[in-house]
Amino acid sequence: MSVLDGLGTTTLTDKDVLIAVMGVTGSGKTTFINLATQSPNKLQVGHSIQSCTTAVERADAFDLDGRRIFLFDTPGFDDSNMSETEIFGTIAVALENQYRKGQTLHGIIYVHRISDLRVGGLARTNFGIFRKLCGNPSLQNVIIMTNMWSRLSSELEGRRRVEELASVDDFFKPAIIRGAVMMNQIQDTVDSAHAIIRQVLRNHPIALDIQKEIVDEHKTINQTGAGMAVDEKLAQLAREYEVKLKAHFEAAERSRRERDEETRRDQLEEAERVRKILEKLEQEKRNQASQYQLLQEAFTEAERRREQAMREAEERSRRETQAAEARWRHQLEVSEQRRAQEKADLEERTRRETKAAEARLRQEAEAAERRRAQEAADLEMMRNLAIAPPSYSGGDDYDYQDYNDDDEEVNYYTVVSGGTYTLCYVDQNLYATLDRDERHISMKEYGTGFRQQWLFESNDGEKWTIKSVRTGRYLGVTSEGTLRASSNPSLMKWGLSKEYGSLQYE
After folding, report:
1. Is the confidence at residue 182, as pLDDT, over 90?
2. How far is CA 136 from CA 139, 179, 212, 259, in A?
3. Are 490 and 481 in contact, with CB atoms under 8 Å apart?
4. pTM score, whole prediction
5. Alpha carbon 284 to chain centroid distance?
6. 151: Cα separation from own chain's centroid
7. From its phi and psi, is residue 501 left (phi > 0), alpha (psi between -120 and 50) or beta?
8. Cα distance between residue 283 and residue 276, in whole Å
9. CA 409 – CA 400 distance, rounded (Å)
10. Tens digits of per-residue pLDDT, 387-434?
């Protein structure tokens, strides 16, 4: 995330907390943020005097006590890669545009190394600029956090240094008097980092002086309290370098008089280096307003590009959505057509299968009806069946009328229990025989050798069973009145009529 959009365009709610982390280069700002967020997307940490943070960067948000926390890393006040005006302008532009969007910080954590042996003039000056940037009202939302306690020989030494820092009149003491809280990160743990952030959760957002001066009071950057403090710092540095430059020229002159050409040359080279620094400081002081204007223009351009990118992304998303909807509609239409075709195919298949099933049922019904008719006819024939021994040839010259009506007895043959006989329909020379299913009885015109033989058995001469010699199945009549052959003899009882030796089913 660049310097100009570090505070982002995320929609905030009342539960969101914005915290800026500031301090000098190498104080551990980025390390603290990475420790607190525990995000896999770590901010880059510098391990030398060279700073890695040259922009206001927003770390990944994280939840703490039901609040969503946003931490912002800022360039160090003495960043080695940026000029004084660039550092100050970068932070000021980010804060200005944050304020214009209605976003206000809940607090600022100012990080200070407890391991620094002394507080020099530059450190005092940098914290003075920080105080001017915040303004007295918002100092109550500032936490001065000391860290790097592991570099000390003992915790007692750290406690002593904290008391000294809090008592320095031109350093932390004025801020503490106006409400700033001093806290110590003795252990580099997530819990200790979150404990410090919990202190900020108690705050109510307060606009910083730099925000109100630029946005509400329409001041230029060098007219703000912090801007004037930066000018004063540049002027102080310029005075210090002027003294150094004068000292180098005087040393070079002495070396000339002493004919020490090598020392003279070294002094002049150092003087040239100091002169360039001095010239750069003067230029920074003159160009602070124009530098800030360039940063504002860069921010505006970045905002324009971001909005354009958002519009393009929205348009691309709209087109992709339309394309996806079109694909979905096409797939839906294809699916509907497929379902309709499958339904039509199913209906046609069902119609054909139903028609075929109906045809089969009709055929089966017709066949059953024919069978029933045939069986009925066969049964009717059975009423006129004559009983003859197996040796009967059934020739046309045989006269079956050779009987005596007077004694009502079969004259030609007498049926004996245990004897085998043929059953024939005299008028048509048809013989009772089992079908191949060995259940149904048919009257068929077979040759002598194929006539079915039947075994007649009776215990009383009144009720007879008639069994196929070949299959052992008994001749009978079903409840529907059709002839059947069955393995159960108890249901197949016949009576013998004396007239023509015919059968009667009982």
Report:
1. yes
2. 5, 9, 13, 58
3. no
4. 0.58
5. 53
6. 46
7. left
8. 10
9. 14
10. 766 544 344 433 333 333 344 333 335 778 888 888 877 667 777 787
